[in-house]
Amino acid sequence: MSAGDDLEARQRKHVMFTWSAQGSAASVRISGGRGARFVDHDGREFLDFESQVFNCNAGHGQASISEAIASQASTLSCAHPAAVFEAKAALGERLARVTPEGISKFFLCLSGAEANENALKMARFVTGRSKIIARRRSYHGASMGALSLTGDPRRWAAEPGLWGVERIEDPYCYRCPFGQTYPGCGVQCAEHLEHVIQMEGPERIAAVFIEGVTGANGGFVPPPEYWPRLRELCTKYGILLVADEVFTGFGRTGKWFAVDHWDVQPDLITMGKGITSGYAPLGAVGLTDRVAAHFDERALQCGLTNYAHPIACAAANATIDLYERDDLIGNAARMGEVLKRGLEALKAKHEVVGDARNLGLFGTLELVTDRVLKTPLVPYNGALIPGSKAARLKLALHQRGLHILLRWNYLFIAPPLCIDEDDLNRGLLLIDDALTEVFA
Ligand SMILES: Cc1ncc(COP(=O)(O)O)c(C=O)c1O
Fold first, then answer.
1. From the CA of 249, how far away is ligand 1's center (Å)?
2. Ligand 1 nearest atom to the CA of residue 245, by list position
């Protein structure tokens, strides 16, 4: 038994895995790492093309973040939710600087799900309305409210969820839900929001929750008109526009936030993951002054024991400083161009790649068994059948030392933003090689 096998056996005995049958849950063995790479307990190195779970944007082993955590822990590591301390004040200032114009107040919680949970409550409090509109192929978190917003089948097992969540279709250009082709489509995916609003009663709808770019449900990069049109419609009907930037925030798409690509100012923005690069648990809701003003004289009925935890605040400050110091957001934009060329090359070479899309360092290869019919390699919500080509591809990627997510027929590419061109091309070559082994 290797050191890794032994450790895993001990852990499996008492600690549960998420989102999986415990007996067959896949583990990620990690003992440490540096930059875009990590090592397991037997000294095997992996190139991290999933940034752990799309959160380690700054990369592994960043000393400035761990030192800030250690320093905070040695001075103040336990504080009342209403406590005033330097790391908390400084984080508010930093977030106000990097979030989209107009966002100026922040509610600091523990995760992306909790950020959405709180944004949902705030939207109801502020508007006095109860319905929410969210997208069909979406993920907003595992807690009951966030899961109710979620379109993804991960919601199904927990149903019935919250009342009053209505769905709109996705900006999924490769398989347009309206059978259209961009740009002749009139951006129906945005336009039909108005139809749903009218059918559900504008005066009953509190908010529209939308991921900046769809995350693990397919990496759909919306057409340029999409977000501005959502903004117009929400303004027209007095509905709050909530950008869920948990996945796409903090540089993933080559700008601080995905909505920055389209100069859109949401009313609320939810964050998590890259806010600390996974070095400590933290989520946040950003509010405009106008929305936040609602709570000037009324109680904000949201809160947690570990609100704005000092260690998480210190980790976030150091992470944001690192993004700025090393120009990691700029690097994500530059490497995004390299990624775009690499994904196009893979599509040109491999028949199984039906579509390739990316924004910054978030890329998706959509795998199909027939390019004309666009038959997905694995159907929506389909299981990974042992011995199938998809299962063989997953294994081939792992055997080549690539940590990467293959979900249904989507292969997602999302390395830490500090990755250099050599490592990015090396990872793409490993994908090329694995596709050749399984499909050529
Ligand atoms: C878009 C989006 N929102 C919310 C969440 C939930 O974040 P967390 O898992 O930190 O609660 C995720 C997690 O994957 C996400 O991708």
1. 11
2. 1
Contact predicate 174/365, CB 8 Å: no
DSSP structure string for 180-227:
--TTTT--HHHHHHHHHHHHH-GGGEEEEEEESS--TTT-PPPPTTHH
Tokens 């209505």 belong to residue: 166
Distances from the Cα of 361 to the Cα of 269, 275, 280, 334, angstroms: 21, 16, 22, 9
242 alpha carbon – ligand 1 mean position (Å)? 14
Q: Can you give the pTM of this predicted structure? A: 0.98
pLDDT tens, residue by residue, 287-322: 999 999 999 999 999 999 999 999 999 999 999 999
Measured in degrees and rounded to the nearest 5, phi and psi for residue 411 equal -105, 115
Please tell me the predicted confidence (pLDDT) of residue 260: 98
Classify domain 64-325 at the CATH topology level.
Answer: Aspartate Aminotransferase; domain 2 (3.40.640)
Nearest CA to ligand 1 atom 7: 112
SS3 285: strand
Confirm whether 3-61+327-439 and 64-325 share one CATH topology.
no
Mark out the alpha helices in 293-362 (DSSP H runs). Answer: 310-325, 328-349
Place of tokens 């951006």: 187
Q: Which of 247, 276, 279, 304 to mutate to test the pocket of ligand 1 (most atoms within 8 A of CB)?
A: 247
For ligand 1, atom 4, the nearest C-alpha belongs to 140
Fold for the domain defined by 3-61+327-439: Aspartate Aminotransferase, domain 1 (3.90.1150)
Is residue 247 in contact with ligand 1, taking CB distance under 6 Å?
yes
Q: Is 270 strand, coil or helix?
A: strand
Any ligand 1 atom below 6 A from CB of 412: no
279 lines ligand 1 (CB under 6 A): no
Contact 57, 273 (CB under 8 A): yes
Domain ranges of the chain: 3-61+327-439, 64-325
Is residue 277 within 8 Å of residue 57, measured between CB atoms?
Answer: yes
pLDDT tens sequence across 382-397: 999 999 999 999 999 9
Ligand 1 in reach of 219 Cβ (< 6 A):
no
Instruction: Point out the ligand 1 atom lying closest to the alpha carbon of residue 272.
Output: 10
